[in-house]
Amino acid sequence: MSDKNRMNEEMSLEEAFEELDSVIEQMEKNALPLEETFNLYKKGVHLVEFCNKKIEKVECDIKKVIENE
Q1: pTM (two decimals)
Q2: Contact at 8 Å (CB) between 50 and 16?
Q3: Quick one: which of 27, 61, 62, 55 has its CA closest to 41?
Q4: Which of 21, 23, 29, 31 is the most buried (most CB within 10 A)?
């Protein structure tokens, strides 16, 4: 299963942050070929987008709870 598909399924926010940390660590090694670095960059972008969507959903849910009280 590709990482993007896994993100579309229910990866937790914590798992996504851990994966993003791993991507950053790999990119900081500086010993990677350019193409591999670019692929890691794209993966990182997808992870950031995924995390932002998850956070926005939680914020929306919190607003709904507050409005219903």
Answers
A1: 0.78
A2: yes
A3: 27
A4: 23
